[in-house]
Amino acid sequence: LDAAGSGLSEELEQAQIIIDELEEKVDVLSSEVEANKAKLTEKNVVIDTLSHEQEQLKHEIELEREKNRILQAKLEAALHPTPPPPPPPESGFRLFGPIASLASSVGDNFTTVLVLKAATQAKLVGKSPLSMAKIGRVIKAMQKSSFSFSDNEVDLVVNALYVTQADEDFQKVFEMFDARLSPSHQAQGFLTAEVFRQVLPLVGEDMPPDKIDAMFKQVDKDGSGAIEFDEFKELMRIMNPS
User: Fold this and answer.
1) SS3 annotation, the chain
2) Is there a contact between 116 and 160 (Cβ–Cβ < 8 Å)?
3) Strand pairing partners for 227?
4) What residues of the chain score a pLDDT lower than 50?
5) What is the structure's pLDDT at 108?
6) Distance from C-alpha of 98 to C-alpha of 122, rounded to nearest angstrom
7) Tell me, what's the pLDDT at 96?
8) Contact (CB, 8 A) for 141 and 202
9) Judging by beta carbons within 10 Å of its beta carbon (0-12, 13-18, 19+), is residue 40 exposed, middle or buried?
10) What pLDDT score was predicted for residue 4?
11) Using CB atoms within 10 A of its CB, is residue 1 exposed (0-12), middle (13-18) or buried (19+)?
12) Backbone angles phi, psi at 191, to 5 degrees
């Protein structure tokens, strides 16, 4: 019995040694697993960062392309301007000073721009045919809108987009559209996608709804689902380069 007990003790000691060795290996493997998990997390962070930067670059490229298209259109209009029509003989009066120059530059849009303040009209003299065509669309769209914009509000938009492009004027335009077009008719401090679809035609842009929705996603840089003032201001300056 003593011999048998001694043999069993030795076997137990050997088994314990094997168990200890296996536990050490398990600990080592666990450490390696945790280290690999940490490396994988770091790689995922890098991938996410690169993906975000890629989307930002795509957005910037698209904005530059849009700016380039606008500049090409302006160049084409400058190289091949449409001659203004002669004044109708039955008018019975002559135009002088800035108003005469404005009538010469805007052609068919002359009657339309008369709703603007005299000071704004004078500052539009010399604008390109492309700009004057867009100004005409702005005025007509706001006049026909169901939101009942006044002549002063029409002048505010034209003056901000095509004359001053000052931050304070853009702010007034943004706040007006925000309060007037929001479902609650109260300023929210941002433009939703639905409101943005109504705003673009009012600033002279003629594009289908799917293009407007695509532009909304590009302009919404922070992905908030809404256009804040700084994003709106940047877009207006890109679409209407001074």
Assistant:
1) CHHHHHHHHHHHHHHHHHHHHHHHHHHHHHHHHHHHHHHHHHHHHHHHHHHHHHHHHHHHHHHHHHHHHHHHHHHHHHHCCCCCCCCCHHHCCCCCHHHHHHHHHHHHHHHHHCCCCHHHHHHCCCCCHHHHHHHHHHHHHHHHCCCCCCHHHHHHHHHHHHHHCCHHHHHHHHHHHHHHHCCCCCCCCCECHHHHHHHHHHCCCCCCHHHHHHHHHHHCCCCCCCECHHHHHHHHHHHCCC
2) no
3) 191
4) 88-110
5) 46
6) 5
7) 37
8) yes
9) exposed
10) 62
11) exposed
12) -115, 125
Determine phi and psi for 227, rounding to 5 degrees: -100, 115
pLDDT of residue 109: 47
- The two structure tokens encoding residue 7: 């043999």
pLDDT of residue 104: 44
CA atoms of 174 and 177, how far apart (whole Å): 5
Q: What integer pLDDT is reported at residue 92 of this predicted model?
A: 38
**pLDDT for the residue 56:** 77
Span 202-238, pLDDT tens digits: 998 888 989 999 999 999 988 889 999 999 999 999 8
Pick from 228, 153, 162: which is nearest to 192 by CA? 228
Across the strands, what pairs with 180?
A: none
Res 106: pLDDT: 42
